[in-house]
């Protein structure tokens, strides 16, 4: 429905997603992998350089990120998915920091004012969010 309201000309889509490192398929033990880490998957029309290695087979992407990427592939919209594999359930600053290399990408560079302040801002946002998620017994 979102894409139905947008012009497809000059559109480029960037999808950010996280999933458990246990879902990552590899020959080596996932215990030795540095977590979190990024992998990318892109449509044929996406011509820019990706900021991390491409996702290898037989790994798959699921749910909404897969649906958006598939839509973009079918409608020939340049799109890239950055999948962060992490060993934590709740989003934290370490996991968000894994996306930091994307801030230098051509598409996101114009959205960033000061990369040096990003860590401090993220910590503040997550700390504020944590206080609202506490359950008091």
UniProtKB/TrEMBL annotation:
PANTHER family: PROTEASOME ASSEMBLY CHAPERONE 1. It holds the Pfam family PAC1. InterPro entries: Proteasome_assmbl_chp_1 (IPR016565). The keyword Chaperone applies. One of its GO terms (cellular component) is proteasome complex. One of its GO terms (biological process) is proteasome core complex assembly. One of its GO terms (molecular function) is proteasome binding. Keywords: Chaperone, Proteasome. This is Proteasome assembly chaperone 1.
